[in-house]
Amino acid sequence: MAILPHIPWLTLLICLPLTGAMLCMLADERERTSHWLALATTAIIFVITIGLFISYGAGGAGWLLHEDAIWIDRYGIRYSLGMDGISLLLVLLTAFLHLIAVLASWPIERHAPRFLGLLLLLETGLMGIFLAIDLVLFYVFWEVMLIPMFLMIGIWGGEQRRQAALKFFLYALAGSLAMLVALIALYLLHGEQTGSYTFALAELMKTRLTLPQEILLFSGFMLAFAIKTPLVPFHTWLPDAHAESPASGAVDLTGLLLKTGVFGMIRIAFPLFPAATRFALPLLGILALTGLFHAAWGAYRQNDIKRLFAYSSISHVGLILLGLAAWQITAWEGSILLMLTNAIATGALFVLIAMIRQRTGTCQIDELSGLWGQAPNLSALFLLFALASLGLPGLANFAGEILVLIGTFQTHPVWASLAVVAVVFAAAYILRLVQGVIWGPISGTRITYDLTPREWLILVPMAILVIWLGLYPAPFLTPLHEPVQLLLGGSP
Predict the structure, then answer these.
(1) 474 burial class (0-12, 13-18, 19+ CB within 10 angstroms)?
(2) Tens of pLDDT along 130-154?
(3) Which residue in 42, 87, 90, 490 has the fewest CB atoms around it within 10 Å?
(4) Contact partners, residue 440, CB within 8 Å, separation at least 6
């Protein structure tokens, strides 16, 4: 039951970070005003999302919240936002991870107001993507998301930041252009059939299309979503982007940007093109399995920890997409839950990697060993989040993974059996990482201090969530049930 007052909460979730971004950009670079502005903004947004979760966490059919207004009436473009149980969890995740990202950005001094402004602008884009139900509005936020991530990698990244940023931008731009062409074509086809030209998602779902038309339009949308996910073979931009991103950028990249591609499939591509979806699901399942094994092997071969977890993220996305391809309610709920748990566990690992690099100047496994003897608290949390990423029972990823496997076994037992084998590969690269970094003789690189109070403040909430989601994920599954049933009932 809703307990919040009737105000435009969805608009507030978009406008607050945008306002905070503008204020940060105007702040004096010589002071830390922008840090406090960004922290206050993200904290307020997180409190609002907690209130929304408390009010609407029981879920329900249809939109839990809906806002609609005329935007560009001549072309049928509306300012239309909607929140169901799926988007409720994703906006909650976005708010939480951006609060963490601001705290992780505290040491940044070079152009800090610009960096924090871009971080908040990125939050605006992400909130808009998860809430927009007019396709032009969705596309605007999709492009808004691209710009700050490109600049954060290109300006504040590592030594190869420009090449990584350019590769990220070109891949993302190619996908965006394909989606724009498909979007305009669908708009025109719907208008010719009905006489009503609109970009409203609910209305476009009523468009009558032949199978060849569906496949062509579906391919345009799916290219954009597959690149952003990233689905093998469209994944090669991610390891470079991860390796060169600053800590906050890596948290957003793995925790949120990758999830926008999966969300786009769930919210837009599958409902709009049910016949093409039915046709494409076997291919999606095969590509997901390919990504599972290819990325797991790629992770095992890495010496750079950031690149290792970039490949690990691709492997986890493969399991998420396998659950979607199974087209079964348990598998879908597991996939969406895995989106959340993976974002938290892997995001925490990227924060820890940044802390290790700050202390040692390196992220190379062969240059790090004996960490436990020098920084036991940091090492213990690194071990916790690594085991959560591995999917150890009782920790975050296990619940989502087991639901995906249970659901997939019911419809595609061969796929599920192969996925179980891929989980063994994940154990191999995680255990190799833990052995190389935490234990063994102390390397020549010495750490002189353990976790600081600010670092405890970042990591403890993430650790609590990792354990909570592993032991009792039910509150996060409840709002998913009805929207997932609705989505699965409307297609293959």
Answers:
(1) exposed
(2) 999 999 999 999 999 999 989 988 8
(3) 490
(4) 369, 370
